[in-house]
From TrEMBL:
Domain of life: Bacteria
Main location: other
UniProt cross-references to InterPro entries, sorted A to Z: Peripla_BP_I, SBP_2_dom
Protein name, per record: ABC transporter substrate-binding protein
Gene3D superfamilies (alphabetical): 3.40.50.2300
């Protein structure tokens, strides 16, 4: 995940502000600072936002899409929404189409971290500010986007690792862990892997014996878990990078005559309703929350950007964790 140094943060903000100055239709071409008064403000209902979504791969994604669509409507923005079906080439096409249509702001959740510089430069040259939501890019040039709004996935991985380390702190023998990774090359897969490994490495008994992508979907989670179960007779723990893959894996574990949550301990990330349901039944032992309801925050940032106000270069979502007991308690009030 990209780390912001002080200088790059200031640079990024300054350049972003310059981009905004270039894009605002009635600001006379000055910088955002020069135009920070009402003369640079676009009325809410004339804002057009182009949003390129990753796909519809998980419960998290469906909740995220709904949050973005509902909040754009509430804010009175015109939303041009495009579903990339988990393909980077589709997202690049969507971004180019937004540029051609001269939308006011572009936002997207990049399916993978790498390979965005060219299209982001095109947006910058066209004077259209870009807001990253949910997932990060690895572009060195942070002036290519205004801000990144989303979770700290490394921290999520650490929380998963901390629970596991605590559970097995007295273990005298090896604990065999299998890992279902998210989409290869995506920020949440890279970072959830990194944070988890970083923490469990403190205990040499905690061993990852297999790790493979399940692409964040139930179907792949099930398929890969079946293969894990065939290849390894002694799996103690499953760490799944999201609830959907854990739910698919639970089907595979049950089909193999084992009890999820008992014979194999399960940790996952997201805390969507179906995941919380499985946790409340004791099938998932620990869930790290990842909040998909980014819509209201995103719309506020869009308005600030259009108004030429300064925005934070990184906006982190606040999140918690749930044991089975806590999931049972929280379930009736879950929004997603
Ligand atoms: O955890 C997973 C989804 O990028 C945070 O993508 C998001 C992840 C989420 O498919 O369920």
């Amino acid at each position: 995940m990209k780390k912001f140094g002080r200088i790059s943060l200031v640079l990024s903000l300054t350049l972003s502000m310059m981009m905004l100055g270039a894009c605002s239709s009635n600001n006379g071409g000055g910088t955002a600072e020069e135009n920070s008064g009402n003369s640079g403000t676009k009325s809410t209902n004339s804002i057009t936002l182009g949003f390129s979504q990753v796909g519809a791969e998980s419960g998290w994604r469906s909740a995220n899409t709904k949050s973005i669509q509902d909040s754009a409507k509430e804010a009175g923005y015109t939303l041009k929404f495009s579903d990339a079906q988990q393909k980077q080439e589709n997202q690049i096409k969507a971004l180019r189409s937004f540029i051609q249509q001269k939308v006011d702001v572009i936002s997207f959740s990049p399916v993978v971290e790498s390979g965005w510089d060219t299209v982001l430069k095109e947006a910058k040259d066209a004077g259209i500010p870009v807001i990253l939501t949910d997932r990060a890019v690895d572009s060195k040039d942070t002036s290519l986007y205004v801000t990144f709004l989303g979770s700290d996935f490394v921290e999520e991985g650490r929380k998963a690792g901390q629970w596991l380390t605590e559970q097995y702190k007295d273990a005298a023998e090896d604990i065999n862990i299998v890992e279902l990774q998210g989409t290869t090359g995506s920020a949440p897969a890279n970072d959830r892997m990194q944070g988890f490994k970083e923490v469990i490495s403190s205990n040499p008994n905690l061993k990852i014996i297999a790790s493979q992508t399940g692409d964040f979907t139930r179907a792949k989670g099930k398929e890969v878990m079946q293969a894990f179960l065939k290849a390894h007779k002694d799996i103690d723990v499953l760490y799944a990078h999201n609830d959907d893959m854990a739910l698919g894996a639970i089907q595979a574990i049950e089909a193999a005559g084992l009890k999820p949550g008992e014979d194999i301990k399960i940790i996952s990330v997201d805390a969507v309703k179906d995941g919380m349901q499985a946790a409340s039944e004791g099938k998932i032992n620990f869930i790290v929350e990842c909040n998909p309801l980014l819509g209201p925050q995103l719309m506020k940032v869009v308005q600030d950007v259009v108004d030429g106000k300064s925005v934070e270069a990184r906006i982190v979502t606040e999140e918690t964790t749930f044991t089975s007991e806590e999931a049972k308690e929280a379930l009736p009030n879950r929004q997603y």
